[in-house]
Each structure stands twice: as structure tokens, then as C-alpha cells.
Amino acid sequence: MKISILLADDHKILRDGIRALLEKEPDFDVVGEADSGRTAIEMACKLKPDVIIMDIGMPDMNGIEATKEILSGVPSIRVLALSMYADKRFIVEMLDAGATGYLVKDCTLDEMLSAVRSVASNQKYIAQKLLVNFIDDYMKNTGNSDMLKTRLTPREREVLRLIAQGKNTKEISSALHISVKTVDTHRQHVMNKLNIHNPVDLTKYAIRTGLISI
After folding, report:
1. CA-based diameter of the chain, in Å?
2. pTM of whole model > 0.85?
3. Alpha-carbon distance 14 to 20, whole Å?
4. Which pLDDT score, from 0 to 100, does residue 55 have?
5. What is the pLDDT of residues 148-202, one digit of tens each?
6. For residues 100 and 103, what is the distance between their CA atoms, to the nearest angstrom?
7. DSSP letter string over 28-49?
8. Residue 65 — left, alpha, or beta (φ > 0 → left; ψ -120 to 50 → alpha)?
9. For position 72, what pLDDT does the model report?
10. Alpha helix (H) ranges present in 3-145?
11. Which residue(s) pair with 29 in the sheet?
């Protein structure tokens, strides 16, 4: 039985290249492509692929938040992150969101094929070039990670994303269908958790963590 795959990346040329490579494998079936986090959610719910190859830095909604949404609705799907980011922070974010594997975009074809087959079998896979024994360390330290303690809620991330896009309080209130007072509360929580207290630095953080693209 073939492994059905959904590609989620905002760069069409990259999706085309990955699709062409994967479709040469007799046990793979690329069933769809998504160019944003929200589109990935919609297609995942509709197609229910075995594996989603998910970019982190996408417009509209990043791959971390999209992964959380997808797996809350269809927990049987396996997500394999394929990112330009090799920082441990992003690996932890994706694994905590529910991803089964993590690759960097300069991986070899053989490694990608191996990773897809591994996550399809519900086996954790982290790129060989990253951290030795990272999964074991992650499982041991999850409860003590400073980053996890300061993790933003999905709503706080949405507020931060809109702040970074230059939206004012009223515009954020309208976009998220919440009150101005609630927006201000979320904004304060974001600043306190991140210890960042001005819009410029908040925007830098949002870019660095893939909440918005540049």
C-alpha cells in the first residue's frame, strides 16, 4: 500500500522539485500541495494523507501552528518538518506541536526518502546532521526547558503575528473577532513571556521563529 503525501511549502519551485523526486518512488503517492499553513490544514482534513512534509516559515500561518491544528483534528497524520532552520529551538517547537520528524532543506534525497518512510511508520526521525541523541534529550528535558515554560498559546501567537505585520489593536480585534481589551491582554502576556517590550523586537522575534516570512 502506497504512502500518501501532502506537500506544504510556500515555494512552488521547491514543491515541484520534491514532488518529482518522490513520485519516482513506487511506494509514494503525492496527493496534494499547499502553499500556506491554513491551506495545509484544509487539505489535510480533506485528503487525510499518511504524511505531510511541512515547511515552518509560511505565510498566513506557520508550520508549527498548522501542525498543531492538523493533529488536533486528524491525529493519525504524521508530520515531517522540512525547514531551513537547524536551530534546536525550532526542532523542539515542531516536536512539541506533534511532528514525528524534522529535516533541514539541505538534506540528501536518500535521507528524505528514509525520513518519510520512518515517520509513516510512526518512528521519530531527526536529520542526521543536527543533534546526536536529540530525541532522548528532548524527552528527558521537556519539563525543564526554559523555552517550553515561555511558550506562547496559539492565540498569543496569532496576536504576535498580526503585531509583526503592523496591525494596530483595533485591526487585530477585528481580524480575530475578539475585544480590544482581550487583544491588549494577549499583547501584554506575549511581552511578559518573551521579555520583549517594543514592536520592532517583537517583529524580529516573529521573523526569527517563522511566524511571518520576509
Report:
1. 55
2. no
3. 10
4. 95
5. 445 788 888 888 888 887 788 999 999 899 999 999 999 999 888 888 887 777 8
6. 11
7. EEEEEEESSHHHHHHHHHHH--
8. alpha
9. 94
10. 12-22, 37-47, 63-73, 88-97, 109-120, 134-141
11. 4
Alpha-carbon gap, residue 53 to 131, rounded angstroms: 20
N-term to C-term CA, the chain: 40
* Alpha carbon distance 189, 154 (integer Å): 12
String of b and e for 165-203 (b: at least 16 CB within 10 Å)?
eebeeeebbeebebeeeebeebbebbbeebebeeeeebb
| Residue range 19-70, pLDDT digits in tens | 999 999 999 999 999 999 999 999 999 999 999 999 998 888 899 999 999 9
CA-to-CA separations, 16 to 83, 117, 144, 170, in angstroms, rounded: 16, 20, 41, 40
pLDDT in tens, 69-97: 999 999 999 999 999 887 777 888 888 89
Alpha-carbon gap, residue 55 to 104, rounded angstroms: 10
Burial of 130 (0-12, 13-18, 19+ CB in 10 A): middle
140 Cβ contact partners less than 8 Å away, ≥ 6 residues apart: none
**β-bridge pairing 51-54 and 28-34:** unpaired
**Whether 126 contacts 101, CB under 8 Å:** yes
Residue where the block lists cell 485528503:
47
